[in-house]
Amino acid sequence: MTDRLAELERIAHQYHLNAEVPDKFIEDICQEHCCRWLASLIRADDRVIELGYGEGITLARLNGLARRYTVVEGAPSLVDVIRDKHPHVDVVSSLFEEYRPSEPCDRLLALHVLEHVDEPVALARHLRTWLQPDGELLVVVPNRDSLHRRLAVLMGLQPALDTLSPRDHLVGHQRVYDLQTLEADLREAGFEPFERRGFFLKTLPNGMMLDHSPALIQALNDLGDELPPAMAANIAVRARPA
Fold first, then answer.
1. Domains contained in the chain, CATH given
2. What is the pLDDT of residues 169-192, one digit of tens each?
3. How far apart are CA 204 and CA 121, in angstroms?
4. Cα-flanking dihedrals φ and ψ of residue 32, to 5°?
5. Mean pLDDT, residues 123-138
6. Dist. CA 50–CA 91, nearest whole Å
7. Phi, psi (degrees; rounded to nearest 5) at 39
8. CA angle 69, 73, 79 (to 5 degrees)
9. What are phi and psi of 82, to 5 degrees?
């Protein structure tokens, strides 16, 4: 197994397949909330490709909306989970950088992907070849300028907004973006961003929200929809091939 596949397997077992991670409920609620937006963008005749399985929430919510739904996943253990839980879904066992679809897609979902990979611009340039000329890349990444990161810097809990926390390392993050750096990477890769939005009003790190009720986490997601994207925990961009 290559070093990259071994790292994906580590993340899969230490995080995605680990029922003992205490803040999973927070992330799950945020992903469910994001699916409302994603669902509004998928048409019945679309071919959709999703990069990575994660917790499987996006796949479970969206795969029935499109004509064809494919998941590209590098961790063998998560590929097995997809095949077991979703036998009707196309699943490709491959690193993103090594895959090329047999036919172009209409919607390409890169949800919490670009913060993980070694070369995000090179990957985005490769992903552009997967899309129809009028297709869309939908990107979601953690936001460097999130309120909880700003508070952490003001309180001396971390030295800079882009400092990676132990949780970032647990899930394999290599960077955090703001809207400007995210869109700059996408433009360098040959995309033109045309819609931006933010998700989740997060004022504290997950570890300080473990006693928050699911209702409160959902309310913070709802409130996040009303605020400028730059304040949110996660930022999203729709982009089309330039």
1. 3-241 (3.40.50.150)
2. 889 899 999 999 999 999 999 999
3. 30
4. -60, -40
5. 98
6. 10
7. -60, -35
8. 90
9. -60, -50
